[in-house]
């Protein structure tokens, strides 16, 4: 009788709703090539918290001050890294399973557009 009761409870108990996985979460291969014949790829690892914060690594540097948000039909991330000389400000938005992004380094006087694919 106990076994039947336990089975009935397990069968009829609602399953806990699984929290949706953020599509930006995880490891990405970022194409930083200047020349399509000379591939230059670095890893970006994103950990997105429910409070909108982002941690992880990009271009071999820890992500600092990162934030993410889903709004207006897209999910985007922004964060800062450093090369030890100055900050790099990066942002990217998920588009069709890829991340389209850019990095700005004022101290290096450049803005670089990049794309990333899931690792």
What does this structure look like?
The chain is mainly β and 119 residues long. It has a single domain (25-118), classed as Lipocalin, CATH 2.40.128. 9% of the residues lie in helices and 55% in strands. The protein contains 1 helix and 9 strands; from the N terminus they run αβββββββββ. It has one helix at residues 2-12, and strands spanning 26-31, 41-48, 53-58, 61-62, 64-71, 74-82, 87-95, 98-105, 110-118. An 8-stranded antiparallel β-barrel has the order 1-2-3-5-6-7-8-9. It is globular, with a radius of gyration of 20 Å. It starts with a helix and ends with a strand. The relative contact order is 0.17. The mean pLDDT is 87. It comes from Sphingomonas hankookensis. This is DUF2147 domain-containing protein. Keywords: Signal. Residues 1-18 form the signal peptide.
How is the secondary structure organized here?
Blueprint: H1 2-12, E1 26-31, E2 41-48, E3 53-58, E4 61-62, E5 64-71, E6 74-82, E7 87-95, E8 98-105, E9 110-118
Antiparallel strand pairs: 1-2, 1-9, 2-3, 3-4, 3-5, 5-6, 6-7, 7-8, 8-9
Please identify the structural class as seen in this structure: mainly beta
Q: State Rg.
A: 20 Å
How many individual β-strands?
9
Return the average pLDDT rounded to an integer: 87
The CATH topology is: Lipocalin
Instruction: Estimate what percentage of residues fall within beta strands.
Output: over 45%
Distance between the termini: 51 Å
Q: Tell me the helix content.
A: under 10%
Succession of helices and strands: HEEEEEEEEE
So how many helices? Answer: 1
**CATH level 1 name:** Mainly Beta
**Per the principal axes of the C-alpha atoms, what is the gross shape?**
globular
CATH architecture: Beta Barrel
Main sheet record: 8 strands, antiparallel, barrel
Poorly predicted tracts of residues = none
Which strand order spans the largest sheet, edge to edge or round the barrel?
A: 1-2-3-5-6-7-8-9
- Can you tell me the number of structural domains? 1
